[in-house]
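quick one
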Amino acid sequence: MTCGWTSWWVAKQIESRIGAKRQSSFFKKGLMQIKLVEGRGDRVPLPIAWEDCSWQARVRVVARPVRRDSGFSHFRSPSRVPRTFPRAGSRRNILSVPPWKIRVTLPSSLMKLKSLNHRRFRLGFTLIELLVVISIIAILAALLLPALSRAKRQAKIQQSKLEIGSIVNAIRKYEADYNRMPCSSGAMQAAATAGTDFTFGTDRLPDLPVAGGGSGHILSGGTYQTNNAELMAILLDLDAYPNGQLTINTNHVKNPQKSKYLNASMVNATTNAPGVGNDGVYRDPWGNPYIITLDLNNDERARDSFYSNPTIAGDPSSASNPKSGFNGLIPKQISGTYVYELNGPVMIWSAGPDRTVNTALPGNKGENKDNVLSWGQ
Ligand SMILES: [Ca+2]
Ligand SMILES: [Ca+2]
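structure w/ calcium ion:
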């Protein structure tokens, strides 16, 4: 098979080299024939055949015809045209059509001239074939990219679940060793004053993107606000944060056994980097801080400042009043209103792949649906 563009190009070269006008060129039974119009209008069929294509097959005339003496009678009939074909595999091949000799020089070993009786094969591609291959690759890429994106998303969710589980285990081990929760005196006092639990929220951090109204700031409790860096200082036994700021665990006052309860990756960054940053904040795979709530009023229930909201925690499919809690949360009546708590001492959650929360939707809807939780999943 010969690519059409190359056929045309070679034909034009032959035409220019021998100074003849090309009437037409065509393929017939795999044989390219170029009809020339010379002198008295004789048609000169030049049998040329080659296999494989190349973009720049060079053609050079090495012997010019003696026009009048030999005339064009040799070529009046295609049947009288000597069918001389180049030898297959030679770098330079002579197409001899007396009195002309046309040399076709192959630019690379990819193009080989062969006789028509020789078995054909090729190593090159036509433009159409290349376009077909490119189109197939594009279609496969379009099919694979969403699957890869989903796989990457699931991998991050799994990573977040593992990290949340590791934090829960670290807190429970610390509690078992010291018979207290790993937190500062400020958190303890705030919880005691409010008579409730304490949430390590987004203090001194960018607010979570929020839908449904509100600031997206996750409150801690009372007048004392902080984030999970305090917890990490104790669980990782950090005397100072990587940025040099002293922690609440300076001189190991909160962890005198100097035990490292958590194996978290430390990252040389302050914002939006997964892992424990220079500021000591443990961020999820999407760069948002883990929100952690500890039971500090010792009732073995944790009340998170976000998921205690009945709008978020109430199960919309429940017909009862109050509604059943989303993912196992328990409604508790306080001063005529209901809040929701977890039947356990620790709650940890992440805003998930969309990095967003919604204050007006239940926990299993909208922006809250992809949140990664330490409970009920
Ligand atoms: Ca509690
Ligand atoms: Ca979310």
